[in-house]
Amino acid sequence: MSTVNLQDLVLDRASAIPLSQQLTLQLSHWVVSGRLAPGIRLPASRVLAQDLKLSRNTINTAIDQLRAQGYLTSQAGSGVFVSTDLPQKDKPLLKASIQGLKEYPPLSDYGEQLQKNDFKERSGQLPFTPGVPDLSAFPYKIWQTLMRRHSDRAILGGYQGNQGYKPLRENLAHYLNSSRGLRCTPDQIIITQGAQQGLALCTQLLLNPGDHVLHEEPGYMGARKAFTAIGANIKPLIMGTDGLDVSQLPLKTSAKLLYTTPTHQYPMGGILPTSDRLQLLNWADKHRLWIIEDDYDSEFHFYTNPIAAMQGMAELSPVIYLGSFSKTLQPGLRLGYLVVPKPLVSAFVQAKSFICGESPLLSQAVVSDFIEEGHFIRHLRRMRLNYQKKWEHMQSLCEQHLQGTMTPIAQSAGMHLVLQSNNPQLDDVRLHQRFSQAGFGSSPLSYYYQGEVKKRGLVLGFSNTNEQEREQGIQTLAGLLSRSDL
Ligand SMILES: Cc1ncc(COP(=O)(O)O)c(C=O)c1O
Q1: 211 and 277: one domain?
Q2: Which of 129, 220, 448 has most ligand 1 atoms within 8 Å of its beta carbon, as the pocket-test mutant?
Q3: Statement to judge: residues 337 and 306 lie in one domain
Q4: Which residues form the domain of 398?
Q5: Are residues 417 and 291 in the same domain?
Q6: 74-115 per-position pLDDT tens digit
Q7: Residue 127 lies in a domain
Q8: How does pLDDT run across 190-234, given as a tens digit for each residue?
Q9: For ligand 1, atom 7: residue with the closest CA
Q10: Cβ atoms within 10 A of the Cβ of 217, count?
Q11: Which secondary structure element, helix H or strand E, spans residue 27, and what is its range?
Q12: CB of 194 shorter than 6 A to ligand 1
């Protein structure tokens, strides 16, 4: 067995990187490159210390590190050797080619279906990007206090159950029953990682490929995409000014599911009156289909209290209620909830356990205290005033700058405003792109249609904007609309 001379090692004694670390790094490179052959014995640490003019401590630290990483091995009494078996990460990669992957099994039918979509990941957040609450007005101090309170509770580092943290389900049931008119018990609530996960669970548990789903048109794309991805057929619901037009519900239907946003139609903003809600519930009962009631931003009605949720209007309601903390708190939290009829709870909780397991426990504990101690209600009250002022400002800016080009659909609620183009031929996708190049977010109204586009314009989220951004944004929009190529 041969030994090796390590005197060529280059060490920078002026560097902030400790000498033991420099030694570890260089020796590991020498092992991987073969400069130190497998099986070769290193000089004794005393000799190395002398040759390299380093302390034995430094040498021993580096050798211990290299041994732990698998580059060196030691044999009692005979010294330290270069390992004959490189660590896995340094072994040469298997020869594989992209071409070769084509011969592997194809995606599932579901995967193939998704592969065909022209998918673009969210490109970040600009002023007016719809769906973002006022993140600068979030009560970070209170949040930090609650986080600190819970962060060293060992029990929250483990598993507590897929249905969700019990105290949160209890506090949420109390809030929903008293403030949103639901009739639910904590054991009907499932804490999800956002409303979108709730929709995905509904899709998996209630639909088979080919099933029919009734969906608002224009309507929420996130729901429509989840339904179509599983192979369901979407049948558009005819809309009136207050949301879906109950007088136009089909006399016959084989649909299994109806998706609706009755308290603030997404995106057009209609508010379905109580009598229409009752009619819809009776109709669903007659035709035996489930209703998904998406109550995504009902907390933000500015001049009147929001109408009670449909879920609470019937004794044995066929409603699956979908809620989210994305608008009331923050979308980055990734927490939402489902309220499901009791006979469905077990299947939903099992599916959640397979798909993603539990929702983050620490955040659940913080939200639970946030509700219980009254911070949630206070925060909602503040945000309602905040959004009301912004909504009023938007109305006056539109009046000032967009007269004759775009008309705001003026429901006094929510976090976004629909600007409907007076020109039915407007290329709202191009307008959205130009607006985005100028630094502002939006969604083209045409995106919300699956079939024939009946209205064009832009959806603007105003909740996460400041006064200057609103002024600049609407003036920029007016400038873009004055050009003739849209
Ligand atoms: C109508 C509607 N429903 C559901 C969601 C999904 O919310 P979450 O962030 O909780 O998945 C959104 C998000 O913007 C929405 O606009």
Answers
A1: yes
A2: 220
A3: yes
A4: 390-481
A5: no
A6: 888 888 999 988 777 777 666 666 667 777 888 998 898 888
A7: no
A8: 999 999 999 999 999 999 999 999 999 999 999 999 999 999 999
A9: 195
A10: 20
A11: helix 19-33
A12: yes
